[in-house]
Amino acid sequence: MERIPMTANGFKMLEEELKRRQTVERPRIILAIQEARAHGDLSENAEYSSAKEAQSHNEGRIGELESMISRAEIIEVSKLSGSTIKFGATVTLVDDDTEEQKSYQIVGDLEADVKLGRISISSPIARALIGKKVGDAVEVNTPGGGKSYEVVEVAFR
After folding, report:
1. Cα gap 137→97, rounded to integer Å
2. Distance between CA atoms of 38 and 48, rounded to whole angstroms?
3. 81 near 11, Cβ under 8 Å?
4. How many domains does the chain have?
5. Each residue of 106-155: pLDDT tens digit?
6. Cα–Cα distance for residue pair 132/130, rounded to 1 Å
7. What is the number of other CB atoms lying within 10 angstroms of the CB of residue 142?
8. Domain shared by 36 and 99, yes or no
9. CATH code at 22?
10. 51, 101, 103, 120: which has the highest count of C-beta atoms within 10 A?
11. Are 29 and 55 a contacting pair, CB within 8 Å?
């Protein structure tokens, strides 16, 4: 089985979602199915069909979460150090064209969210950053074209 690298925060988020789906969503959906059954003929009962579909989706997601949690390889970022960019690093870059400064943390695929400054280890920018140090120039081929950055800070927090 392939291990899934993730930060401790990413692992915690998965555990919280699993707990919510098992203790909140599952009972709510079961109740909705019971109420829909009470309406009679199930063959033409839209509420019943909708509740069964929600149940299927929820149980499928629970299975996915259990699988991801069992395969998780938790990397404690606060215990990492060094000047080289690797998984878990928070990297501050300056765009060579716009002089705009951006910060990203390199995280696992499951916890990536660009809006929150977390990029996937398998993203083009993260792959280009791995192994670089402060002062290095980085060329990234993105779907919108090539971009050039300079690494100005590497931190593990």
Report:
1. 13
2. 10
3. no
4. 2
5. 999 989 999 999 999 999 999 999 999 999 999 988 777 888 999 999 99
6. 6
7. 11
8. no
9. 1.10.287.180
10. 51
11. yes
